[in-house]
Amino acid sequence: MSKNDNVLNQSQRQQLRSDMDSQVEMLSDDETDHLARLLNQKVEIPFLPIGKEHIIVCKLVRKVDRYLYEILPNELYSMVKSTKDGLSTEHADQLREIITTRGKNDFSIRFLPESVEQQIFIFLCSQIIRAMRKNMSVLKL
Questions:
Q1: 110-137 pLDDT per residue, tens
Q2: pLDDT tens digit sequence for 59-101
Q3: How far is the C-alpha of 138 from the C-alpha of 83, rounded, in Å?
Q4: What is the 3-state secondary structure (H, E, C) of 111-140?
Q5: In 49-60, which positions are buried (b, 16+ CB within 10 angstroms) versus exposed (e)?
Q6: What are phi and psi of 52, to 5 degrees?
Q7: Beta-ladder partners of 133
Q8: From CA 42, how far away is CA 131, in angstroms rounded?
């Protein structure tokens, strides 16, 4: 490995700034909508007014997406967008365990009981990380 292998070129520096400063989420609107529907089927979320449930659930998905975008390097999190590149099932399971164990103390949905908050966080992280496996995507869940 040469000394230059550890130096970013101008293009890489610009990409790094863009990744860290301008973008805050990875999931598309369709992926968010799909995960919101899955979440609504799996977790009973209290206090959601009739007619506004889906909007609020989409916001919860976005909150988890932004959390993962913040803690995972884009080079890893972007695997959610590629079906050919991805994690092995073993690595996905390890990542899910790390994120859901450590993250449940950092992540908060203040208007919900902690038990429901934990269910939402674990479910969404598990689904998103599952979609990061080879030959998978959020829309295939």
A1: 999 999 999 999 999 999 999 999 999 9
A2: 999 999 999 999 999 889 999 987 788 999 999 999 999 999 9
A3: 10
A4: CCCHHHHHHHHHHHHHHHHHHCECCCCHHH
A5: eeeeeeeebbeb
A6: -120, 5
A7: 87
A8: 17
